[in-house]
Amino acid sequence: MAPVLILMGSQSDWPVMQHAAQMLKDLGVEWRAEVVSAHRTPDLLQTTMQQAEQDDVPVVIAGAGGAAHLPGMLAAFTAIPVLGVPVPGKQLKGLDSLLSIVQMPKGVAVGTLAVGPAGAANAGLLAAQIIGVSDKAVRDRVQRFRAQQREKVMSGAKLELPE
């Protein structure tokens, strides 16, 4: 299977988007990351998606800040599922990106995750879950991860008042 494609509009988005890569790595799912700007390299955006189609990429994770056009523009060029991650910016802390990504017009779907590192990690998890529909080994690893998450919560310290 081709690796999950993680795209971002700028190299400065990598500190957030690496959380998607780490989740995929932890779940044993191959990935590759690239910088493709909807505004500065629209021709590269189109050819990247054409190549993704040819390579049978199963899922695209797209991180974008500011106007956040990248996920929607990618989705316009493919039927591959696109998961959008709003990357926090300095001015509006990602609210602008969230609103941009979540307001896709009818007929061009983008799955929108939370702002920032948690959204990126969950994009990696959701990509693995999508792949797990047809790959039992990946589905089993996701289920083990979920069980580990449950155990972390259940084995936590008791909440009590100090004496």
Describe the structure.
The chain is of the alpha/beta class and 163 residues long. It is built from six helices and five strands, in the order βαβαβαβαβαα. The protein has helices spanning 14-26, 42-54, 70-76, 95-102, 117-132, 136-154, and strands spanning 4-8, 31-35, 60-64, 82-86, 111-112. It has a five-stranded parallel beta sheet, sandwiched between helices. Helix 4 (95-102) links the parallel strand 4 (82-86) and strand 5 (111-112). The model has no long low-confidence stretch (mean pLDDT 95).
H/E element sequence: EHEHEHEHEHH
Main sheet, how many strands, which sense, barrel?
Answer: 5 strands, parallel
Shape: globular
What is the radius of gyration computed over CA atoms, rounded to a whole number of angstroms? 17 Å
Question: What share of the residues does DSSP label as strand, in percent?
Answer: 5-15%
Number of helices: 6
Into which percent range does the helicity of residues fall? 40-55%
What is the residue-mean pLDDT, rounded to a whole number? Answer: 95
Structural class: alpha/beta
Task: Tell me the distance between the termini.
Answer: 57 Å
Strand order of the largest sheet: 2-1-3-4-5
Taking pLDDT < 50 over at least 5 consecutive residues as the criterion, the unreliable ranges are: none
